[in-house]
Write a sequence for this structure.
């Protein structure tokens, strides 16, 4: 008897090998996929090997990865947000139009757009809780409504379908250096968006792994009813997650506004799927309750490497989307294969 | 019948006959025409907004009711044509961006006796499809003009940045360049208005092939983004663009952008509506079987200032 207990305790105390621990993380597969894609383009595309190419890839990845971090949290919490891509455009339009037509100041416009972004998220969450419809439908509705509003309101207020160039307004310089600064290292240019992306991924990871809120998110996504039964405030967590998506979109929106000066009101359609794809490639389950923020960053990185890699490899442009799709599929297959191996080898 | 009642009936008859008279007089003068404009515009695109403004200006001047609809895909554009046939409009102005997809519904509209004018896209197809007229730029001609310009500028290795893979009028521009340009030209595709992607892809292409010395964008909003990408990639490439925007005109005046090739979209929208109106009210056909060309017109450093104020107002 004692020996059995003793063995069990010893087995528990026995440290799991680091290797297995890593492999069991949700992002392990995505890491494998990323390494594979990186090695692939490293071998076949010589221009891909420059440091400058690496930062181009990271930049493309960061513009998907910033909202994708928040989308990953939301998906772990068991919900979707199809409106995120268009919301980025709405938020930058809100900032630009508010700044040029309401107050005449970019700082006010930027702060207004932050509240606007959080409100968009809160409305999505609130509609979800109140209507009890699947988030797929609720956010499909807001996706389409925002698409219409973006164009209609922009045209109504400015008379055109793109906003005015804001680069001459007071405060532009300071705000540009906050949201869209670039650092020159020799011939290599690094956008600040990359740093924000990595920082957001780190913060989200910390929340997921080290805080009570993180536990709640996983619980709500995995077993909503059980979570509610043990006292997790499900509604609050979900609304909060949608607001987090709003925050992620706001960050990207501000980057785009200050990096490109004007906003085309028809932009952003289709990006929502990239955010979701980055999260799923990075190990989030479509059913919720499982996934990681680091994974979404790796997913965005894979996507960035693939789209840019096809160009570095100088493959026929007509085949562009095909190659991107095929590479993503390949990366995801490797990803799932690694995950399956890891969970089998207990 | 009491006197009061008699008076009332008489009054009623009088009003009715007056009403009828007014109605017939109105019909004789011409009831207000309804003209539908159907395009393949991506929603929220500056260029298309200028076309729409031109169409609205013509509609206001001709006292026509204008219905404006757009869808960026062939089958959807065809559906819109069917929709306005069902509304019994008096004329349709449409873009033949997807001629094969639109052909059956164009035939249906013609069978219903609705005159159709083409504009902007389909310069090679409008005649075969029996359209009344066509207003627009011959994209191949414009592309060829750009090719000549590139030769003049001494370009050797050029990128043609196409934002909508598969749209015939954009392909025609790149093919036109290829026809007259003596150096090497390659097409690079982007995905609509996703500017970070446009920047990253251009940057990647410039890093992949550092000998690229000219980039031609097929839409004005992309020109500043490409200039950005050139800076980031440490390239020396020059940039020219199809179409215009206030920002593009400004960049030309500053010498950062070499030129913009203007097809005068306002005129396209205006002419398309006006041609239908002329046909309905006076039986005219415009163009004498040839397309009414609205471009190409080069905006460069010399004339940028003159064009700037119209660009700012959103009509050029």
């Amino acid at each position: 008897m004692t020996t059995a207990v003793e063995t069990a305790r010893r087995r528990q105390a026995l440290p799991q090998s680091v290797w297995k621990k890593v492999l069991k993380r949700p992002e392990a597969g995505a890491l494998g996929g990323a390494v594979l894609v990186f090695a692939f383009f490293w071998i076949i595309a010589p221009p891909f090997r420059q440091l400058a190419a690496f930062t181009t890839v990271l930049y493309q990845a960061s513009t998907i990865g910033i909202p994708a971090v928040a989308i990953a949290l939301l998906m772990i919490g068991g919900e979707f947000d199809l409106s995120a891509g268009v919301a980025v455009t709405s938020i930058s339009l809100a900032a630009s139009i508010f700044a040029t037509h309401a107050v005449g100041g970019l700082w006010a416009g930027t702060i207004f757009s932050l509240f606007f972004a959080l409100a968009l998220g809160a409305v999505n969450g609130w509609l979800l809780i109140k209507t009890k419809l699947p988030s797929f439908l609720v956010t499909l509705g807001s996706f389409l409504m925002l698409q219409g509003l973006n164009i209609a309101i922009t045209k109504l207020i400015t008379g055109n379908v793109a906003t005015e160039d804001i680069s001459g307004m007071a405060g532009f310089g300071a705000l540009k250096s906050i949201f869209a600064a670039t650092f020159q290292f020799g011939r290599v240019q690094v956008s600040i968006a990359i740093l924000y992306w990595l920082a957001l991924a780190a913060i989200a990871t910390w929340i997921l792994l080290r805080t009570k809120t993180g536990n709640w998110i996983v619980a709500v996504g995995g077993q909503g009813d059980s979570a509610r039964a043990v006292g997790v405030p499900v509604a609050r967590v979900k609304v909060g997650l949608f607001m987090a998506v709003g925050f992620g979109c706001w960050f990207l929106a501000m980057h785009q506004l200050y990096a490109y000066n004007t906003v085309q009101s028809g932009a952003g359609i289709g990006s929502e799927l990239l955010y979701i794809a980055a999260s799923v490639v990075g190990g989030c389950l479509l059913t919720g309750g499982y996934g990681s923020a680091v994974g979404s960053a790796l997913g965005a990185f894979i996507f960035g490497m693939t789209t840019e890699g096809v160009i570095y490899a100088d493959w026929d442009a007509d085949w562009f989307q095909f190659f991107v799709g095929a590479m993503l599929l390949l990366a995801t297959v490797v990803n799932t294969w690694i995950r399956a191996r890891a969970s089998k080898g207990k | 019948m009491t006197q009061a009642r008699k008076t009332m009936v008489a009054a009623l008859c009088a009003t009715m006959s007056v009403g009828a008279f007014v109605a017939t007089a109105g019909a004789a003068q011409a009831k207000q025409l309804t003209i539908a404009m159907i395009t393949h515009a991506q929603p929220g695109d500056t260029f298309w907004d200028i076309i729409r403004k031109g169409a609205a200006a013509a509609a206001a001047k001709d006292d026509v009711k204008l219905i404006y609809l757009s869808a960026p895909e062939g089958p959807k554009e065809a559906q819109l044509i069917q929709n306005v046939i069902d509304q019994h409009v008096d004329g349709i102005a449409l873009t033949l961006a997807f001629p094969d997809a639109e052909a059956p519904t164009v035939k249906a509209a013609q069978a219903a006796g609705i005159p159709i004018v083409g504009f902007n896209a389909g310069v090679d197809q409008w005649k075969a499809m029996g359209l009344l007229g066509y207003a627009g730029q011959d994209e191949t001609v414009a592309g060829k003009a750009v090719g000549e310009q590139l030769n003049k500028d001494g370009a050797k290795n050029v990128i043609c940045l196409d934002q909508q893979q598969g749209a015939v009028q954009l392909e025609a521009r790149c093919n036109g360049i290829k026809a007259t340009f003596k150096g090497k030209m390659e097409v690079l595709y982007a995905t609509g208005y996703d500017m970070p992607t446009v920047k990253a892809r251009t940057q990647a292409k410039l890093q992949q092939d550092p000998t690229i010395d000219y980039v031609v964008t097929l839409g004005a909003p992309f020109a500043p983004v490409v200039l950005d990408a050139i800076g980031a990639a440490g390239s020396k490439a020059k940039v020219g663009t199809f179409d215009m925007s206030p920002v593009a005109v400004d960049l030309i005046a500053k010498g950062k952008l070499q030129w913009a090739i203007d097809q005068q979209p306002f005129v396209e929208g205006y002419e398309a509506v006006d041609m239908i109106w002329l046909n309905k009210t006076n039986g005219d056909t415009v163009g004498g079987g040839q397309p009414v060309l609205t471009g190409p017109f080069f905006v460069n450093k010399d004339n940028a200032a003159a064009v700037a104020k119209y660009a700012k107002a959103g009509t050029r």
